[in-house]
Amino acid sequence: MDQILYIRPEKLNEQTNNRRQEFTNLFKKLKAKKPKNLDDVVHGLHDEAFDQFDCLTCANCCSTISPVVTEKDADRMAKHLKMKSVDFISQYLFKDEDNDFVFKKTPCPFLMADNYCMVYDDRPKACREYPHTDRKRMFQILNLTHQNCRVCPVVHGITEELVKIF
């Protein structure tokens, strides 16, 4: 495998737009073919990518999107902050169009200036799993992976490699 190249976060949207048709064709092809080795390929690229990439140099996900926050996540973060859950929800969350709790604003209220997370050990499950490129049954989240090309340099790099492979 070639070394995965990373795009600076501020260039991701532009670069993804430049490769929009190529990436769209890839994800359509993957949905249609359902390659049996997709998980193995993506997980290998994920491992390689995170051997090279430090999320603390980026934090674009924390700066630009909000994770879904479950009630269990809210309870855990409220406890960490020594707050009542109802107060935590009132202060930090709202229900989006899908009726999911998300943060009221971006960047994340817990993202510190050094890109560390103030509630890291108690962060939402969606944050723990982001960018989801090590999940089983990658086939089920191809749309999410496609969307994350605009947010995460690692996902963009993995997608560029997938274009070469598939």
Task: Record the SSE blueprint.
Blueprint (H helix, E strand, L loop, with lengths): L8 H10 L1 H14 L4 H15 L7 H5 L6 H10 L4 H8 E3 L5 E3 L21 H5 L12 H7 L4 H13 L1
Antiparallel strand pairs: 1-2
Helix pairs in contact: 3-9, 5-6
Helix count equals 9
Radius of gyration: 17 Å
Fraction of residues in β-strands: under 5%
What's the total count of β strands? 2
pLDDT under 50 segments (min length 5)? none
**Looking at the structure, what is the overall shape?**
elongated
In short:
With 166 residues, this protein is mostly helical.
Task: Give your account of this protein's structure.
The chain is mainly alpha-helical and 166 residues long. The protein folds into 2 domains: 20-62 and 131-165, no CATH class; 68-122, no CATH class. 52% of the residues lie in helices and 4% in strands. The chain has 9 helices and 2 strands; from the N terminus they run ααααααββααα. Strands 1-2 form a two-stranded antiparallel ribbon. The longest helix has 15 residues, at 38-52. The chain is elongated and about 50 Å long. The model has no long low-confidence stretch (mean pLDDT 95).
Highlighted features:
single chain, 166 residues, mainly alpha, 2 domains, two-stranded antiparallel ribbon, 2 strands, 4% strand, elongated
